[in-house]
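User: I'm preparing a small set of examples for a lab meeting where we compare how different chains pack in three dimensions. I only have the primary sequence for this one, and I'd like the structure in token form so I can line it up with the others. Please keep the answer compact; I'll paste it straight into my notes.
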Amino acid sequence: MTNANSDTASGHYLVGDIGGTNARFAFVAPDSTTPTSLARYRVADFASFEQVLEQLIGDWKNQGLPESGPSHTCLAVAAPPHLKTISFTNSPWRFDRALLGQHLGDSQLEIINDFAAVARALPALTASDVEQVGAGESQRNKPMVSIGPGTGTGVATVVFDELGKPVILEGEGGHVDFAPITDMEFEVLKHLRARFGRVSIERLLCGAGIVNIYQALAAIRGQQAEFEAPGDIGAAAQKDNPLASEAMAMFFAVLGSSAGNLALTSGALGGVFIAGGIAPRYIDLLRRSDFRARFLAKGRFADYTTNIGTYVITHEDPGLLGAALWLGDKA
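Assistant: Understood. Below is the structure token output for the 331-residue chain.
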């Protein structure tokens, strides 16, 4: 792809949301901020990101998009985006701007954190894009925060300037220390600390975290760990398997506590939004859990969190939407 700034490519954008399990790509037509799906790849199917770019070029051309390629590209990555080489936290892929230039030509590049993209999408989500859990509300132009347990744990916040323009605050909030609340959570922490040393919330709040909780509970209770995959544990919990149910209940309780901590830290009167692939899949278990109770259980500041809404994002690709809006902001 070359000469991406030619007239034939004017306004055609490429956006990507690249996580530890899936890489999703879309294009944005001229005079639009709505991404149209282009391709979705499983990370496990590609040994390197260069192979993904080669496949992506073919899919771009097969869609009848300009041969010269996108004029602008925004990649939302599950990795620190400011480093010279982008190395993904939960996958073996890596790339740099030189590699992108070889395949995308003169396309103007923006590389952002994947949860920065999710945060940028938050103000654009409608009632049909979320499912509310508990009471509370989202106040207009107040800080909004998203936490997303998936392959890893992402966190990002959007605040607004005096004109109501969104400003994204990136970070690595998924790697803050895990703070247990119940006696059993203290026992799980001791088990995980013996295994990992330092225990962040990501050690519990992701797919592998579900397995970590389940295995820790099995060891603590002297039971056999019957399941090895998070999907199997979640499915067993939906069938009321006792140990799997306890693991998923703890997962969502810890998520509630962590979400409440983020609300206090960021002043998220605009709401706290749960992204990632786990919560939508097990919304029934989330509603049965102590998620909302733990979100509210903030001692002297319980009244503060009471009026803050908590929502599960059901929009199919908030990261792609956010990346498209990010490029629109730069136009």
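A couple of notes for your slides: The CA atoms of residues 276 and 293 lie 21 Å apart. Residues 7-114 form a domain with the Nucleotidyltransferase; domain 5 fold (CATH 3.30.420.40).

User: Perfect, thanks.
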